[in-house]
Amino acid sequence: xxxxxxxxxxxxxxxxxxxxxxxxxxxxxxxxxxxxxxxxxxxxxxxxxxxxxxxxxxxxxxxxxxxxxxxxxxxxxxxxxxxxxxxxxxxxxxxxxxxxxxxxxxxxxxxxxxxxxxxxxxxxxxxxxxxxxxxxxxxxxxxxxxxxxxxxxxxxxxxxxxxxxxxxxxxxxxxxxxxxxxxxxxxxx
Length: 189
Fold this sequence. Notes:
Strand order of the largest sheet: 2-3-4-5-6
Number of strands: 7
Number of helices: 4
Shape: elongated
Radius of gyration: 26 Å
């Protein structure tokens, strides 16, 4: 999953889960970002504010040390309308369905998928699993990624329409007006 470039900033919303402590039956987590976490998330995302951010995840162990994570991320984001420049709020609800694998396996599968992309027409793009790093998956980071990807980069207030100002062009003000003037001058001599 591609993330916005956060530079050297740490992840603003962290909810680490230790893989070794996940029961065989899986686990369910409801998480909510604090006001401080939402403030940093808004700065990183380049939006006016994030009024709320919460997520619900189910983490189910699979064979080979893999994990299947499904859930929903919900947020209310304060932005600025690109047409009217008025403040607006957008509701975001994003589905999450990812597989995590031990780091070495995730890297190996990613390489295999890249090699397979050399075919003329791949039948379907396959996403490699996310890597389990140091035995931890971070549900806060996962929720933040999903939220950032769902933010509308060009939000519009309902009914706002950009209308370009139409200006009638002066017939004497076009790229070939100078050439025409020279021609007219030549003819007049």
